[in-house]
Amino acid sequence: MRQNDRANESDKRTLRREILRARDGLTADDVRENASELARQALALPELADARTVAAYVSVGSEPGTLALLDALRARGVRVLLPVLLPDNDLDWGTYTGEASLARVRHGGRMTLLEPAGERLGADAVTEADAVLLPGLAVDARGMRLGRGGGSYDRVLARLHRAGARPALVVLLYGSEVVGRVPVEPHDRPVHAVVTPSGVRRFGRPAGAERPGAPS
Length: 216
What we know:
It contains five helices and eleven strands; from the N terminus they run αααβαβββββββαβββ. It is an alpha/beta fold. Strands 3-2-1-6-9-10-11 form a seven-stranded mixed sheet. The protein has a two-stranded antiparallel ribbon with strand order 4-5. Strands 7-8 form a two-stranded antiparallel ribbon. A hairpin with a 2-residue loop joins strand 10 and strand 11. Helix 2 runs parallel beside helix 4. The longest helix is centred in the first third of the chain and has 22 residues.
């Protein structure tokens, strides 16, 4: 690893700690109220309005809440894919059919996640998505996303690139997590939009571009 890359990774760790510390200060009411507004903002996105399949995730703890959004997408008739964490940190996928379809899975000593309990669809299932909702800790003015550091979604983005798939890439965050600059490494890829409880910010991709059914 080059010295500059090591410095960026160190800066990422510092920023992650700061953001996670701020999230830990949120109350359950804070998380619930923000989740409702986040869903309202996200559902107004043209990319989600036209989507037939959306790859998403189930929030845990003080992450920006996603369950209300997942249920609203299902109510629209959208096929919602959710990740299953594999031992090597890659992601398999399953279909969300309601909160009762989720299982609480503990991954070693690391974390407990809510994952789809039904059929596994394979890691390439994400390439069928018209939009991918990404977890994160921050995004900057260039659309560069800071993840938790496990590399799972770096693999997802690389898989989409190899397959020639071009879904809308959308990060769900709190407003304070849109920052001036995120440290980046060569493998990092920009996203198209960030949704917060107070609004939407786009990065280099006009609304409606490359949506299902949009002219190419």
